[in-house]
Amino acid sequence: MSREYGEIRAILPHGPQMVLLDRVEWLDPGRALRAVKAISGGEPCYQRLPAGLPRRGYAYPRSLILESFGQAAAVLWHSLTGRLADQDSLLMFAAARSCRFEGHAYPGEVLRHEVALERCVADTAFATGSTWVGERRIASMGSLIAVVRTRPE
């Protein structure tokens, strides 16, 4: 089972500028998935960078790698519950534990997130996994925690 971009947009409560997934390539509902995100030099994080920086100057921000992984985990969580957030609730990134970055990704490369859902307790989900560029692992996520909470009035 896979998910295309339009389906991902319908699942995630993020606006279109903040959806950091392009496709779910493989999904075992409620258990695991593999999702991809193509990095483009036209993304907002590169807009204010000057031309001619050394390669490392164009490394995709680690915070966005973490957010993209978290969105993949949210799609996986949705496959278990059938819902995430609505007008009365908020999906929130709560914490990341034992995350290690081992490399960088650059414009023109594709992030591949391999995510496993560890467990869900009430409106809290725990996921783990890794992010790859080709055969190179660039990040491992020990535990990512997301919550759904009632939207304050």
From TrEMBL:
InterPro entries named among the record's database cross-references: FabA_FabZ (IPR013114), HotDog_dom_sf (IPR029069)
Q: Name one Pfam family in it.
A: FabA
Keyword annotations for this protein, in alphabetical order, are: Lyase
GO MF terms held by the record: lyase activity
User: Which residues constitute the signal peptide according to the record?
Assistant: none
Has keyword Cell inner membrane?
no
Q: Which PANTHER family match?
A: 3-HYDROXYACYL-[ACYL-CARRIER-PROTEIN] DEHYDRATASE (PTHR30272:SF1)
Q: Which family does it belong to?
A: Belongs to the thioester dehydratase family. FabZ subfamily.
The protein's name: Beta-hydroxyacyl-ACP dehydratase
Q: What species does this protein belong to? A: Solihabitans fulvus
Q: What is the lineage of its organism?
A: Bacteria, Bacillati, Actinomycetota, Actinomycetes, Pseudonocardiales
